[in-house]
Design a protein that fits this description.
Elements (H helix, E strand, L loop, with lengths): L1 H24 L5 H23 L5 H6 L3 H19 L2
Helix pairs in contact: 1-2, 2-4
Length: about 90
């Protein structure tokens, strides 16, 4: 868990710094850093949902077993998070 939080934090910091610098110096190139920043926020929100809301189910194990219903459920959560982050 610590390793995941450190990785998320570093990528978020990278996205924030690049978004800030591109916004200050190169306003026409802000789309890519903002996309990185929004994508890491979306991944982090999904990780929180998987870790704390779906704590009884092991997502990786269910997907390894080939549980199509659970895969579609996870895909639905990912689409909702992606839409919420992308259109905010």
């Amino acid at each position: 868990m610590k390793k995941a939080l450190i990785t998320y934090s570093l990528i978020f910091l990278f996205g924030f710094i690049t978004a800030y610098l591109s916004y200050i110096y190169f306003i026409e190139f802000t789309a890519f850093p903002m996309a990185i920043l929004k994508s890491i926020i979306g991944i982090f929100i999904f990780w929180l949902i998987d870790k704390y809301a779906l704590y009884e189910i092991d997502t990786i194990e269910e997907l390894k077993k080939g549980n199509i219903a659970y895969a579609i459920f996870v895909l639905g959560i990912c689409i909702i998070v992606a839409c919420a982050v992308a259109y905010s």
